[in-house]
């Protein structure tokens, strides 16, 4: 009898001890944010802003880990197959949507089934810049020049936003373009400024200082109106129509199956600490960056945006016969 009582008490003790552990609110230990790019680029920069803000908001460490390789597939795959508990997250951009078509035969995960957006955080248009020795200054004149001579355009990597925008430019202008891939935006812009290539698409943050200093010409922006930061650049949408409204976006993802309460905790923390933070918004506005409207910042809205982007860029990739060696 004594043995039975002790066994029962022991079992009760184990259960009592287990309750606080299982009931601990998220997050109760360090959260890792995977960036599938090298340190220093726009995705890495956003991830570090997010990590700092969430660490302060949720009173837990959020750390950034750069996991590069395989056209961002290596890092993305790690998150896609991570335990869906909210402790392994991903910051990515439009390339995750392009990869769904570019690598569909050998992609080791299903983008929509294995990952879920916590929030689409920000977006900005692209800016088409060129070497200063080009003897044209407006977007219509540039397109006219492209019809007379073959242009070399640099891209910051295969399947990147810049690559897709360049393919769309060739398609809409009905001209051939020699596409020259680089390993990142810095060497790409260096070669444009050095007259080794003619043009490149970049983010306002990337190209703004070089345009301001006269080292690059800005020809066009991929939005309906001109940008105050680039008054000399024409609107691609005005010239080619709404299909040329291109946004470089960045979002936070979690593995599919992450509990709804964890997704909502992260989403609410991003809402309070990042996308409505006056200091962050002021800096983003100076860089030509804007947040998504409130109704597009939920996980459900994020899934709809991701599906739309996969379909849109999949069509551009197929229409232009963009292939990778798989």
Description:
The protein is of the alpha/beta class and 326 residues long. It has 2 domains: 31-123 and 248-319, Bordetella uptake gene, domain 1 (D-Maltodextrin-Binding Protein, domain 2, 3-Layer(aba) Sandwich), CATH 3.40.190; 127-244, Periplasmic binding protein-like II (D-Maltodextrin-Binding Protein, domain 2). The protein has 13 helices and 12 strands. It has helices spanning 2-23, 42-58, 73-80, 95-102, 111-114, 139-148, 161-173, 185-193, 204-212, 236-240, 260-275, 278-286, 299-319, and strands at residues 31-35, 62-66, 88-93, 115-125, 127-130, 151-155, 177-181, 199-202, 217-221, 234-235, 247-255, 290-291. α7 (161-173) links the parallel β6 (151-155) and β7 (177-181). The longest helix is centred in the first third of the chain and has 22 residues, at 2-23.
**CATH homologous superfamily identity of the largest domain:** Bordetella uptake gene, domain 1
- The average pLDDT value, as a whole number, equals 91
Biggest sheet, strands in spatial order? Answer: 2-1-3-11-4-12
- SS-based structural class? alpha/beta
The best one-word shape is globular
- Poorly predicted residue ranges: 1-22
Number of helices: 13
User: What order do the SSEs take from the amino end to the carboxyl end, as H and E?
Assistant: HEHEHEHHEEHEHEHEHEEHEHHEH
According to CATH, the fold-level topology of the largest domain is D-Maltodextrin-Binding Protein, domain 2
Strand element count: 12
- The gyration radius over C-alpha positions equals 23 Å
Strand content: 15-25%
């Amino acid at each position: 009898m004594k043995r039975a009582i002790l066994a029962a008490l022991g079992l009760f003790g184990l259960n009592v001890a287990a309750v606080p552990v299982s009931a601990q609110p998220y997050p109760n230990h360090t959260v890792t944010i995977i960036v599938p790019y090298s340190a220093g680029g726009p995705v890495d920069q956003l991830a570090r802003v997010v990590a700092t803000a969430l660490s302060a908001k949720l009173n837990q460490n959020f750390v950034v880990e750069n996991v590069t390789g395989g056209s961002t597939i290596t890092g993305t795959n790690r998150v896609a197959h991570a335990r869906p508990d909210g402790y392994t997250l991903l910051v990515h951009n439009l390339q995750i949507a392009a990869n769904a078509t570019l690598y569909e035969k050998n992609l080791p995960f299903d983008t929509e089934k294995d990952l879920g957006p916590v929030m689409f955080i920000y977006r900005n248009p692209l800016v088409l810049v060129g070497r200063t020795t080009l003897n044209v200054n407006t977007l219509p004149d540039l397109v006219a020049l492209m019809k007379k001579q073959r242009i070399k355009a640099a891209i910051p990597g295969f399947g990147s936003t810049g690559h897709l925008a360049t393919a769309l430019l060739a398609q809409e202008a009905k001209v051939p373009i020699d596409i020259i891939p680089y390993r990142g935006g810095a060497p790409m812009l260096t070669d444009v400024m050095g007259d080794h290539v003619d043009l490149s698409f970049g983010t306002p943050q990337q190209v703004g200082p070089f345009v301001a200093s006269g080292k690059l010409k800005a020809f066009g922006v991929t939005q309906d109106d001109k940008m105050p930061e680039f008054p000399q650049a024409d609107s691609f949408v005005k010239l080619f129509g709404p299909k040329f409204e291109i946004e470089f976006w960045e979002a936070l993802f979690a593995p599919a199956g992450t509990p709804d309460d964890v997704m909502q905790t992260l989403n609410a923390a991003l809402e309070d600490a990042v996308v409505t933070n006056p200091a962050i918004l002021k800096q983003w506005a100076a860089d030509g960056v804007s947040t998504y409207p409130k109704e597009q910042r939920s996980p459900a809205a994020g899934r709809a945006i991701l599906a739309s982007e996969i379909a849109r860029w999949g069509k551009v990739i197929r229409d232009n016969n963009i292939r990778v060696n798989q």
